[in-house]
Write a structure and sequence with these properties.
Blueprint: E1 4-8, H1 13-27, E2 34-38, E3 54-57, H2 73-92, E4 96-99, H3 101-109, E5 113-115, E6 120-129, H4 131-134, E7 145-152, E8 155-158, E9 164-169, E10 176-179, E11 183-186, H5 194-203, H6 215-222, H7 231-241
Parallel strand pairs: 1-2, 1-3, 3-4, 4-11
Antiparallel strand pairs: 5-8, 6-7, 6-9, 9-10, 10-11
Helix pairs in contact: 1-5, 5-6
Pfam families: GATase
GO cellular component, one term: cytosol
Protein name: GMP synthase (Glutamine-hydrolysing)
Length: about 240
């Protein structure tokens, strides 16, 4: 069976390893079927997409809406490499799932508007499926309304032309969309449960998502959340394309 490819852009080893472990857990894949490439570590090696069942692009501290003159050489390289990969993914309508940074890159690549208008504080929010979302196979078994973890400096403000809106929230109009039949992206984090987001909050407490002095207060707000449905999206992705 072909492996899935996980593309990571988190420079912190602990965060990157935690993300990989979370995707393994919630996709149900064994390690040998989830190949990881850390984009920030070096140039993207040649990839034959036919060798993979699908591509997953994780989150990270990079923002598609950063000013061009403020982007580091690494960020510019990563964007070029992801853009080249998305050229083929979208043209061939290959299975792709982008979470967090994934919605910024796919949204920008497809002509949407990604900016800071709907940036969200680290929190649990109620996400609502659209009529199209209720019948999408990746959201099978997910209720019409569910809680999900968010925490982003940017968001997709204008949907790409031709994209299908699958989920929204009061804080961010675009929480999930689909391009074609097999290319997906979410604003919310389907790979995070309460322990996962608490660990991530501690890792990124100095990354500008909130004042570092408020880290314990942020964690206190997160821990009572009941976030159980978002991982189903990842399990459905793997079940459909694996």
């Amino acid at each position: 069976m072909r492996p899935f490819l996980l593309l990571s852009s988190r420079p912190e080893d602990e965060a990157a390893d935690e993300e990989y472990a979370s995707f393994l857990r919630f996709t149900g894949l064994p390690a040998e079927r989830l190949r990881r490439i850390r984009l920030e570590a070096g140039p993207l090696p040649p990839i034959d997409l036919d060798d993979h069942a699908g591509v997953i692009l994780g989150g990270g501290p990079l923002n598609s809406s950063d000013a061009e003159d403020e982007k580091s050489p690494v960020q510019l390289r990563v964007e070029r490499e992801i853009g080249g990969l998305l050229d083929e993914v979208v043209a061939r309508d290959l299975p792709f799932f982008g979470a967090c940074y994934g919605i910024g890159t796919l949204g920008t690549h497809q002509g949407g508007v990604v900016d800071r208008t709907y940036g969200e504080p680290v929190s649990a929010v109620e996400v609502t499926l659209t009529p199209e979302g209720r019948v999408d196979p990746l959201l099978a078994g997910v209720p019409d309304r569910f809680e999900a973890f968010v925490g982003h400096k940017e968001a997709c403000r204008v949907l790409p032309p031709g994209a299908v809106l699958l989920a929204s929230s009061s804080t961010c109009p675009v929480q999930m969309f689909r391009v074609g039949t097999n290319v997906y992206a979410t604003q919310f984090h389907p790979e995070l449960d309460v322990p996962g987001i608490v660990r991530r909050v501690r890792i990124y407490q100095h990354a500008g998502y909130f004042p570092p002095s408020e880290v314990e207060a942020v964690i206190a707000r997160l821990t009572p959340a009941v976030v159980t449905h978002p991982p189903r999206v990842l399990a459905n992705f793997v079940a459909r394309y694996g």
